Amino acid sequence: MTPRSPLQVARSSDLSLSVMPDPTRSSAARSANQRDRPAAEPSFYYFAYGSCMCPVDLQRTFEESTRDYVIGMAHLDRYRLAFNRRSDRRNCGVLDIVADRSTHVEGVLYRLPWRLSDRLDEREEIPTRGYQRESVTVTCGSRIYSDVRTYSVVNKLPRELAPNDWYFNVVLRDAVTCGLSEQYCWRLFEHMHALQQQQIA
Q1: N or C: which end of the chain has fewer CB within 10 A?
Q2: Domains assigned to the chain
Q3: DSSP character string of the chain
Q4: Percentage of the residues of the chain whose pLDDT score is greater than 70
């Protein structure tokens, strides 16, 4: 694979760079509005760090728009990303989170209707023990959210497995289009590229 910058990957995708709701306003303002809006039905908070970050991708799973469920970009402290699982469906290494006190994971915080819980579990391969639920605490804007659902790999590989080009592009595109920090996007880009180079060597 010829390395490309995070922005080049995002621009070459079929998604707009403005998939997140109301991109002209600050994330803090969006978060405040979402927090203050009364829930119309039972709901839960969900922290997405991989291919579920993008509302357009998540919409394909739920078969309904998910843009209004976005709270904003969030930080999960004391964890790092790793490609600790081989996906038979994607035929490559896929993302996981691992405890690491020295760093953090960036992603997107959603407030999802509870009726979508089982479908999210299915996407994360809970029935086949691909992933498991974890309850974490994340920071979004100036607010700390506890009891937030995310997912981690059940049976982790002994060493990371590189993503293929398709998954590489999906993860990086979602990170850029969802407004994760430039430094974080570059770090993600460099890590995935290094894994691919190790696999070739």
Answers
A1: C
A2: 19-157 (3.10.490.10)
A3: -----HHHHHHTSSS-TT-SS-TTS-HHHHHHHHHHSPPSS-EEEEEE-STTSSHHHHHHHHTS--GGGEEEEEEEEEEEEEEEEEETTTTEEEEEEEEEEEEEEEEEEEEEEGGGHHHHHHHTTTTTTSEEEEEEEEEETTEEEEEEEEEEESS--SS-----HHHHHHHHHHHHHTT--HHHHHHHHHHHHHHHHHHH-
A4: 80
